[in-house]
Specification:
By secondary structure, the protein is mainly β. About 0% of the residues lie in helices and about 35% in strands. It has a domain of about 40 residues.
């Protein structure tokens, strides 16, 4: 199952949840303030290439990875 990132609009707390794809768009409860309307956010990802794992923000030039 994918790991999704959420942000609470009340306290700005960011947290992660492992959820099925079919449940991804349902709101989450913030673990800090208990607001039931935390929003899913866009996040960076990790890719595994021949040189091992690397993080990518998807912005700017990269010094490694895929060609």
């Amino acid at each position: 199952m994918p790991l999704y990132e959420y942000r609470c609009p009340d306290c700005d707390h960011r947290f992660e949840k492992i959820k099925s794809v079919s449940q991804a768009d349902f709101p989450e409860v913030c673990p800090r303030c208990q607001n039931a309307k935390a929003e899913r956010t866009l996040s960076t990802f990790s890719a595994r290439g021949s040189a091992g794992p690397s993080s990518s923000s998807g912005c700017g030039p990269s010094s490694g990875g895929f060609s």
